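FORM 12-B: Structure-to-Sequence Request
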C-alpha cells in the first residue's frame, strides 16, 4: 500500500467531511433516530424501533414486560458502541432477560441504563440524549463460525454514489460481542467485486485466522453482496452526505439492513484492505453516477481485488498466443467467438464500437462512464463498458474502452490488466 494513496485524518476531516458533507447531513448521521427517520421515509430497510424514551416519565410509564424476547437498548447519539445493551433471550425463570454477553438484566437494570442514556452518559460532551429500544438482528449463518455471540456488520465507504471500500467487522470475546474495532473486534477487507473477504486485521495487525482457531478469515463469501452495496448507496443518497460510512447488518431472514451512518468513518478499513482511500476517492470524484445500480457497477469494475483471478493463477499459468479466439458474452448471454489480439503493450482491453453494438453491450445501462483518451490520431472521447469474455477457457470480467477498430486486424485488444495468470508467447 503506497503512502500517497492513504487517506489521513486531516484530509478526511478537512476535505471530505467539510467539503462534501453538509451540516444537515452530519446531524442526521450523528443521531441514530434521525437516521432511522430518513431511512423509513425513503423505504430503506433498517431494524424496527419499538420505543423511544425522551424523559423520565417515558421510562417509568412504559410496560417493559411487553418487549420481545430479544432487542437492543441504545443511546441515539452514543459513540463507539458504548451504552448499548443487547438482549438475546428471556431468562428461563421469567425474571428478566439474558444479554449476548450471557449476563442477566432485569427491568430495573434496563430502566437505570435508559436513565443514564437520557442524562448523557454515552453522548459526546455528556449532553442529554434519547434512549430507544430497537429490533435485535442476530448472526447470519454465513458468519456464525467467525463472530463471537454478537451481530457482525459490514462497513461500506460510499463517495459520489460509488461504494469505494468495504470491511466485514466480526465481534470477538474481547469486544464483548460488539462489532467495534477499538473494542477488539476483527476487521476483514472485502473485495468490492465479489463480496469475498481478502485480508484481516486485529488491533491494527494483519492476521490470517480467527484468534484461537484455525479458521481462515480470507475467502468468506458475504451473502447478498450486490444488494448490500446498492443499499449502502441508497442510504448515502438519502442522507445528503457526499462521503460517509454506512454500517449494514445482514438479517438472517430479512436481508441487508442499514444500522447507522457515519460522517467521519474510521480509517482502519484501509489496513484491512491494504489499499488507500485517497486514490479511490480521486478516481470517482468527477464521475457522473446515475443511481445506486450504476454506482455499484462502477465500483465492481474499478476496485476489484481480482481474488478469483489470483486463485486461478495459483492453479497454473496458462499459455496464450498473440492472436487468440475469445468468446464474448453478449447482452442475451450468448457466447460469441471473436478474434482478439493479446497486447501486453496496452494496459486496458479495447473493443470495436460496431461489434459492441451488435452484441448489445453498448446500451446505456452497460456504459459506466466516458473518458478522454490520447492516441496517435489525437484525443477522443471513448465510452467505458463492462465486458465479460472467455480466454483459454478462463472467464474474465473486466471493463473495456470502446474504439473504432473496423479497419484493424482484430476488433478486440486484450490488455495486460486482464492477463493475470497468463503467459504470452510470441
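FORM 12-B RESPONSE
SEQUENCE OUT:
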Amino acid at each position: 500500500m503506497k503512502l500517497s494513496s492513504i487517506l489521513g485524518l486531516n484530509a478526511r476531516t478537512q476535505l471530505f467531511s467539510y467539503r462534501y458533507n453538509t451540516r444537515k447531513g452530519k446531524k442526521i448521521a450523528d443521531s441514530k433516530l434521525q437516521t432511522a427517520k430518513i431511512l423509513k421515509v425513503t423505504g430503506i430497510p433498517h431494524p424496527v424501533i419499538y420505543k423511544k424514551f425522551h424523559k423520565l416519565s417515558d421510562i417509568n410509564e412504559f410496560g417493559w414486560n411487553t418487549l420481545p424476547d430479544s432487542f437492543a437498548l441504545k443511546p441515539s447519539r452514543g459513540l463507539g458502541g458504548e451504552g448499548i445493551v443487547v438482549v438475546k433471550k428471556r431468562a428461563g425463570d421469567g425474571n428478566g432477560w439474558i444479554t449476548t454477553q450471557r449476563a442477566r438484566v432485569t427491568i430495573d437494570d434496563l430502566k437505570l441504563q435508559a436513565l443514564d442514556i437520557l442524562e448523557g452518559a454515552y453522548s459526546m460532551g455528556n449532553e442529554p440524549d434519547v434512549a430507544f429500544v430497537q429490533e435485535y438482528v442476530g448472526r447470519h449463518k454465513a458468519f456464525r463460525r467467525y463472530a463471537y455471540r454478537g451481530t457482525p456488520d459490514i462497513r461500506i465507504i460510499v463517495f459520489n454514489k460509488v461504494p469505494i471500500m468495504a470491511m466485514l467487522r466480526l465481534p470477538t470475546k474481547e469486544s464483548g460481542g460488539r462489532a467495534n474495532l477499538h473494542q477488539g473486534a476483527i476487521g476483514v477487507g472485502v473485495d468490492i467485486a465479489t463480496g469475498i473477504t481478502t485480508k484481516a486485521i486485529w488491533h491494527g495487525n494483519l492476521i490470517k485466522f480467527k484468534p484461537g482457531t484455525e479458521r481462515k478469515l480470507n475467502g468468506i463469501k458475504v451473502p447478498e453482496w450486490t444488494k448490500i452495496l446498492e443499499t449502502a448507496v441508497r442510504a448515502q443518497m438519502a442522507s445528503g452526505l457526499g462521503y460517509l460510512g454506512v454500517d449494514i447488518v445482514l438479517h438472517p431472514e430479512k436481508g441487508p439492513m442499514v444500522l447507522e451512518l457515519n460522517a467521519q468513518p474510521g480509517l482502519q478499513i484501509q489496513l484491512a484492505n491494504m489499499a488507500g482511500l485517497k486514490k479511490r476517492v480521486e478516481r470517482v470524484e468527477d464521475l457522473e453516477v446515475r443511481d445506486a445500480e450504476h454506482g455499484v457497477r462502477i465500483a465492481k469494475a474499478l476496485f476489484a481485488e481480482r481474488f478469483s483471478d489470483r486463485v486461478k493463477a495459483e492453479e497454473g499459468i496458462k499459455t496464450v498466443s498473440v492472436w487468440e479466439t475469445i468468446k464474448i458474452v453478449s447482452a442475451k448471454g450468448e457466447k460469441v467467438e471473436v478474434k482478439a489480439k493479446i497486447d501486453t503493450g496496452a494496459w486496458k482491453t479495447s473493443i470495436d464500437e460496431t461489434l459492441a453494438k451488435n452484441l448489445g453491450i453498448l446500451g446505456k445501462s452497460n456504459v459506466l462512464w466516458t473518458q478522454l483518451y490520447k492516441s496517435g490520431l489525437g484525443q477522443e472521447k471513448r465510452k467505458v463498458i463492462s465486458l465479460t469474455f472467455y480466454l483459454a477457457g478462463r472467464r474474465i470480467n473486466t471493463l473495456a474502452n470502446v474504439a473504432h477498430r473496423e479497419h484493424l486486424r482484430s476488433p478486440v485488444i486484450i490488455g495486460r490488466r486482464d492477463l493475470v495468470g497468463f503467459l504470452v508467447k510470441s
